[in-house]
Amino acid sequence: MASGGIINDGGVRGKGFAARRKRGLAILACAVVAGLGLTPARAEYPDKIIKIVVPFAAGGGTDIMARTTAQEIQTDLGKPVIIENKPGAGTIIGTQTVATSEPDGYSLLMATFAHAVNPSLYKKLPFDPHQDFAAVSLIARSFNIVVVNPASKINSISDLITEAKANPGKLNFGTFGTGTSAHLAGELFNAMAKVKMTAVPYKGAAPAISDLLGGQIDVMFTTVASAASLVSAGQLRALAVTSAERSAAFPQLPTVAEAGVPGYAAESWYGLYAPTKTPAPVIARLNQAIAKAVQSGAFKKLEANEGLIMVGSAPEELDRYVAREEERWRKLVKDANIEVQ
């Protein structure tokens, strides 16, 4: 009896000790993971669908870039990557969506030119472009292309300048919204060519190009990605590229500087951001996927056909690049008295 009691007592104690030991090891493991800035779920990133928010309508250059990026990185990450188009308010609506998302790596922003310009356009934004975002990678740099309807009597940059000077304020150019590359490239042209064309804002490249094709607007300084196929098909006439040097993708086209506006140059770009406080290992995993993606055949095709310069940079390079872009365009916004209506 006595020995049986001792055996039973010892068995209970043994089970209790094992349970406490198991709990202790679990707590220790969580503490180690927390010390690395992760949660157990984030340590296995990604484990669900990733969303890239595009702050423009579907069908434009940014949308094309985002969808190509999603297609390529999902193979490497092993989880689906979807696109959510949230156009409006000069990219602010879509950008704010990501700024207020959980910092877990599952809501990302495909940022563009406007991300560096909006701080100069708005006295107050519903987010801080510096404090509310964590850079992932500068994916690519590009230029814009000046296009008109093939039925237009404007056949060159010289013609555009002549027509604009003869009819101040009557020629209009389509944009993707106030402060986008299509807008400021046109405003830079106004300033440097000493002409006055009127900007007409749209919620993305696709609706603007639709009106250009329909003859409702006269010209666009649009992204190459949004217009290249239409130029090749003869549905749009290209006049020039906005880069400082000619593009290998369009060797027959002069630069705006060559064609009559010395010193003119305007550049576009695509960069991926996550909400601030996204764990560093998650940022590193995404950056790794981007670096691999830009070497893919799909991106090589975009590079060759549309003159993109693929980058796939480290996060800090995106921060440095955007800081330079902010400084570059701040003066034009001020001098041109560009205001958000």
Automatic annotation (TrEMBL):
Pfam families: TctC. InterPro entries: BUG (IPR005064), Bug_dom1 (IPR042100). It comes from the Bacteria. Belongs to the UPF0065 (bug) family. This is Tripartite tricarboxylate transporter substrate binding protein.
